[in-house]
């Protein structure tokens, strides 16, 4: 739960005060609407927020590390389906930018791979149980 604390706090912070007041006053016979007139559902708002935050954080990782976007998304989908971020196989190597595996560059490549795996595990731990990939089949 600790890894999800910032996610929950971010969700609450993005709701405006009026929406929070409406949610606090909600009863079975009262519909709650946002400032645009759309019916407000906490579950829908939460799901949308989680999906947007996940996509933003994943895009940020892809951009900062120069990863292949499609392969990185597929790797994370497989990780959520498997319940872990695995370093086995060639998947991580495939999504990384090309780097020499020899000489001094080998150390830099190993450090980059380690940093990428750590970032992916952090992302996984933050969103596991919250993100579903029904469109992905093993």
Automatic annotation (TrEMBL):
<feature type="domain" description="Type I restriction enzyme R protein C-terminal">
    <location>
        <begin position="1"/>
        <end position="127"/>
    </location>
</feature>
<dbReference type="InterPro" id="IPR022625">
    <property type="entry name" value="TypeI_RM_Rsu_C"/>
</dbReference>
<dbReference type="Pfam" id="PF12008">
    <property type="entry name" value="EcoR124_C"/>
</dbReference>
<protein>
    <recommendedName>
        <fullName>Type I restriction enzyme R protein C-terminal domain-containing protein</fullName>
    </recommendedName>
</protein>
